[in-house]
Write a structure and sequence with these properties.
The structure holds 2 protein chains of 2 kinds.
Chain A (H helix, E strand, L loop, with lengths): L1 H40 L6 H38 L1 H6 L6 H33 L13 H17 L2 H34 L4 H39 L4 H37 L4
Chain B lengths: L1 H19 L14 E2 L5 E3 L4 E4 L8 E2 L3 E4 L4 E2 L5 E2 L1 E3 L6 E6 L2 E6 L1 H13 L3 E6 L6 E2 L2 E2 L1 H9 L2 E6 L7 E8 L5 E11 L2 E6 L20 E6 L2 H10 L5 E2 L2 E4 H4 L6 H17 L2 H9 L9 H26 L1
Parallel strand pairs in B: 5-20
Antiparallel strand pairs in B: 1-2, 2-3, 3-10, 4-16, 5-8, 6-7, 8-9, 9-10, 11-13, 11-15, 12-19, 14-18, 15-16, 16-17, 17-18
Helix pairs in contact in B: 1-6, 7-8
Classes of the chains: A mainly alpha, B alpha+beta.
């Protein structure tokens, strides 16, 4: 049943997202070429007007890339809200599916589309990195200098930490995935709370609650981070100075694992609370 | 629930006991004590004697990827202290940086190594931009390429003033382990033509005090590079990468005194974040499944498991930090 729900959830967004992603990617490539044109002709008076136009188009393309993220989030969370808390919700809860599966379908739907969005943003950034840098002493339209710099950085990191680099990369990717999941669960929870406590303007109430909760969590996280780093750095340095490199790398890996566990716990808590509220809200089955 | 709380309290006490194990005073160790003779010619660390190496040309660079700096400075004849650097702790060559130059000191083995490098020539060559030749470049040139550069297509004599607007690259000759280098020759790019001059064999008045070609007066016998060699130099632009050296400081190797307050602060915060913070997760995860009002027990147990995993990870990390 989960597959069927997910299929319809994805089908609802697929068409708009496809058009959006193709347009944004095309805008990114054209924007990158425009920026390259601007950099190569900004000192030439004859191209003055076209240079400015090219720069403006580049700025527009960057705004389009950032905007595509916001649009994707709107598409995904509006679907969640409409399916559960608008008139459509009345029909949704008459389906022979338990609340857990319904919520899971929405979560997976959000994860998939936001995952695609992250890939789209990465592709757009790659396009910028590929076409914008001006190649010295002639050369083609594509300049690999940024990729070479990234490659050299990775090589330096490999020289420093060895195979632990692979562990760190895997853990960072896992952290990003869990953070994405946490963000989705937080939004679902806030929309749910907004729908429960507000009689009118439920979606705006949910957005307001999300803004407050998100700001609160960010503030607490920043305070904890700043305090921890300032109070713990000397002691950590004293404990690890003179230790073998492998031990130091293992400590960093464990710190990342603890952060991953904390984030996972938060995501799971918000998911459980959202599910609880869903169960209480409507019980027609 | 009480049983779980007992275990949690026990775990916290164990963590506190483990943390006190780290408050052991580190043994105080002495750093290397250096002495310099009155005429600055002999440097000693108490066990080895380093003689000043007077045969070093002005363009001899320490271009290793790693340097070691001793903690204690040594007083020079000029009245101030300078730190002693080396490639590693047991290297036979050390140097001090004085008045803009490296002054090298070497044991008998180090002296033989330097003599061999300066007399027998390079083990490898690298190309570097002229302004950063004291940094380690990774753009290597083969022996055949360097020979081809010295042979060249034709030889021209050019006034050095006309080379002032030329783009310059330097060919650095390196020793076997790429820790030392000197200038083998200079490439000039002028009006899309590539020229090379090998430094050995040139008259002294063509150099400045740093061993670089002086562009004030004189004529330079340049070799015009053939097309293939010129291409290699042309490709170098944008491809040369400099390796930033890493440093080890003797001062960091041993802790002279333990800062108890820093350790206490570290462990207090660590216990709060690592052990105290996940306790509410455990409590919530173990109590709520028994509540009839709130959802499926499975979800709440998941949260308790995550809390337990958090505590286990923190415990393992604490053990790693203590050992």
């Amino acid at each position: 049943m989960l597959r069927k729900l997910l299929k319809y959830d994805m089908a609802a967004i697929k068409r708009i997202y496809t058009i959006l992603s193709v347009s944004v990617f095309a805008a990114a490539i054209i924007g990158a070429l425009c920026m390259r044109f601007f950099l190569e002709t900004m000192d030439i008076d004859e191209y003055g007007f076209f240079s400015v136009f090219a720069l403006l188009f580049f700025i527009f393309s960057v705004i389009a890339v950032i905007g595509s993220l916001i649009v994707t989030m709107i598409l995904v969370f509006i679907r969640f809200y409409k399916n559960f808390y608008s008139d459509e919700g009345y029909l949704t809860f008459t389906l022979p599916v338990d609340r857990k599966t319904l919520l899971r379908s929405k979560t997976y739907n959000a994860l998939i589309w936001l995952g695609f969005e992250v890939i789209l943003i990465v592709l757009c950034v790659l396009a910028y990195m590929l076409f914008i840098p001006v190649k010295e002493h002639g050369g083609s339209i594509i300049n690999l200098i940024v990729f070479k710099t990234v490659g050299y950085f990775l090589k330096d990191m490999w020289d420093l930490v060895g195979a632990w680099l692979i562990v760190y990369i895997v853990m960072i990717i896992a952290l990003l995935c869990v953070y994405l999941w946490f963000s989705i669960e937080l939004m679902h929870f806030c929309i749910t709370v907004g729908a429960v406590i507000a009689r009118k303007g439920k979606l705006f109430a949910g957005l307001g609650i999300w803004y407050g909760v998100n700001s609160g969590i960010s503030l607490v996280t920043q305070i904890v981070l700043i305090l921890s780093i300032s109070l713990m750095s000397d002691g950590y340095y004293m404990l690890t100075s003179g230790a073998p490199q492998d031990l130091k790398c293992a400590c960093v890996a464990f710190i990342l694992a603890i952060v991953l566990a904390a984030l996972y716990a938060l995501a799971e808590i918000f998911h459980s609370m959202t599910l609880d509220k869903l169960r209480c809200k409507l019980n027609l089955s | 629930m009480k049983k779980y709380l007992k275990y949690l309290v026990l775990l916290t006490v164990v963590a506190l006991l483990l943390s006190t194990a780290s408050l052991v005073a580190f043994a105080e160790n002495k750093y290397t004590e250096w002495t310099l003779s009155k005429d600055d010619s002999i440097l000693s660390d108490g066990t080895r004697t380093f003689k000043r190496y007077d045969n070093a040309p002005p363009d001899l660079y320490a271009s290793s990827s790693h340097f070691y700096q001793y903690a204690n400075p040594v007083d020079t004849n000029e009245g101030y202290g300078v730190f002693i650097s080396s490639f590693s702790k047991d290297s036979e060559i050390v140097w001090i940086y004085l008045n803009g130059y490296n002054i090298y000191y070497a044991t008998n083995e180090g002296t033989a190594e330097l003599d061999k490098f300066l007399s027998e020539g390079a083990s490898s060559y690298v190309l570097t931009e002229d302004m950063v030749k004291d940094m380690r470049s990774d753009y290597t040139l083969s022996d055949d390429t360097v020979k081809a550069m010295s042979a060249g297509a034709e030889t021209v004599s050019m006034n050095v003033r006309s080379l002032q607007r030329a783009e310059k690259y330097t060919v650095m000759a390196q020793n076997g382990d790429s820790t030392l280098s000197y200038i083998h020759g200079t490439v000039f790019i002028l009006d899309d033509e590539y020229y090379y001059v090998e430094h050995s064999g040139l008259a002294n008045d063509l150099f400045d005090a740093d061993g670089n070609i002086s562009l004030r007066n004189g004529n330079l016998p340049l070799v015009k590079l053939d097309a293939q060699t010129a291409n290699i130099i042309s490709e170098a632009s944008g491809s040369i990468r400099y390796v930033a050296p890493t440093y080890t400081f003797e001062a960091d190797e041993k802790v002279v005194e333990t800062d108890i307050s820093a350790l206490v602060k570290f462990w207090v915060i660590y216990i709060l974040i690592g052990f105290a913070a996940p306790i509410p997760l455990l409590a919530v995860g173990l109590i709520l499944p028994h509540s009839q009002k709130l959802g499926e027990p499975r979800y709440w147990y998941k949260i308790a498991i995550i809390g337990a995993v958090w505590i286990v990870l923190a415990a393992i990390l604490a053990v790693l930090l203590i050992i």
